[in-house]
From TrEMBL:
Sorted UniProt keywords: Activator, DNA-binding, Transcription, Transcription regulation
Stretches assigned to coiled coil: none
InterPro entries according to UniProt: AraC-bd (IPR003313), AraC_XylS_family_regulators (IPR050204), Homeodomain-like_sf (IPR009057), HTH-like (IPR037923), HTH_AraC (IPR018060), HTH_AraC-typ_CS (IPR018062), RmlC-like_jellyroll (IPR014710)
Name listed for the protein in its UniProt record: AraC-like DNA-binding protein
The keyword Transcription regulation is assigned to this record: yes
One Pfam family of this chain: HTH_18
MF GO annotations: DNA-binding transcription factor activity; sequence-specific DNA binding
UniProt organism field: Paraburkholderia bryophila
PROSITE patterns: HTH_ARAC_FAMILY_1 (PS00041), HTH_ARAC_FAMILY_2 (PS01124)
Organism lineage: Bacteria, Pseudomonadati, Pseudomonadota, Betaproteobacteria, Burkholderiales
Length: 326
């Protein structure tokens, strides 16, 4: 069975993506992506598929996978039951790896581990238990703390003695062949043309299918109807653009591929639980907090003596969970 392509969206102001999801979930299928991935199971048992490797897994299952290596975890969960958080995921691209190689001579110590990851590398309980607290903190970490946690995780994986390769030495991930499948061609086209008019009929023609057949095929592989999937991708792009203070919300609306502001506001609210303008204000509040901390540190002010952040009039003080994930 050909794996599906997962499009990994890393924010422009971050080096890697950290997230978690439950079960069932739309990415729980045989799939691949060009990014490296660290994957930690925190709940459920089931079967793990990595390349040509198949085995059982339990909570604590920790795996590092290289680019374009097909994988999937299928949980033994009764039909109709849902798990809120099944696994934790870190994804980072080759561009980030190359930048680290160019900038940090010490990074070369990681290259052997990343080379092994092209077959998938599984780690034992000792390493998994050591990595888990860092992983959990990384979900909500901001700024340089993210890099510290990520590098600490890599160091643990690099020095781990309880690790083993998963896929056989002869296994070769054929990403060119994977990407030639109809659905992956369509997903790639969507990702490159979010700002343009995207019609399901045009994508069906691109995939060589009727509209009804493409619609069923698309939903089966992505877990979402075509229009909803495109809107989600456009909202993700809009979130990145909203961090740029020079663009107005109206400009971002059209750059993200929406044809009118009211529809953009409605779709953004449905996905993020707040209006684009409030999302931007929260981001600005986050930036102001960082800037104030840096200014206080530059003046030698202690944490207890640092001045409070003044909120803009009418802006509610958000709880930590109010910052939306991307």
């Amino acid at each position: 069975m050909q794996p599906d392509l997962e499009l990994v969206a890393v924010r422009r102001d971050e080096s890697f993506k950290v997230w978690s999801h439950g079960y069932p979930y739309r990415t729980v299928r045989w799939h691949f992506h060009p990014e490296y991935e660290i994957h930690l199971i925190v709940a459920t048992t089931g079967k793990m598929f990595v390349g040509d490797h198949i085995s059982s897994y339990t909570p604590g299952n920790l795996v590092l996978m290289g680019p374009n290596l097909p994988h999937n975890w299928v949980s033994d969960v009764p039909e109709g039951e849902t798990i809120a958080q099944r696994n934790l995921v870190v994804q980072f691209g080759q561009e980030f790896v190359s930048s680290c190689v160019d900038s940090f001579p010490e990074w070369r110590q990681v290259e052997a581990l990343l080379a092994d990851s092209r077959r998938g590398v599984s780690f034992g309980a000792q390493t998994s238990e050591a990595v888990k607290p860092l992983f959990l903190e990384l979900l909500s970490a901001r700024g340089l703390r993210r890099l510290v946690l990520f590098m600490s995780m890599l160091e643990m994986l690099m020095n781990a003695e309880d690790r083993e390769a998963l896929a056989s030495p002869a296994y070769q991930a054929d990403s060119t062949g994977f990407a030639s499948t109809r659905i992956n061609h369509a997903l790639s086209y969507i990702g490159k043309n979010l700002a343009n008019d995207l019609r399901e009929s045009d994508l069906a023609q691109l995939a060589g299918q009727s509209v009804s057949a493409f619609s069923r095929y698309f939903r089966r592989h992505t877990g979402l109807p075509f229009v909803q999937y495109v809107n989600r991708m456009r909202i993700n792009l809009a979130c990145q653009l909203l961090t740029d203070g020079e663009l107005s919300v109206t400009d971002i609306c059209f750059k993200a591929g929406f044809n009118n502001l009211s529809n953009f506001n409605r779709q953004f609210l449905a996905v993020k639980g707040m209006a684009p303008s409030k999302f931007r204000r929260y981001q600005q509040l986050n930036d102001a907090s960082r800037d104030a901390s840096e200014q206080a540190a530059a003046r030698g002010v202690g944490i207890d003596d640092a001045p409070a952040i003044v909120l803009a009039p009418g802006l509610p003080r958000p709880a930590a969970a109010a910052y939306p994930p991307t």
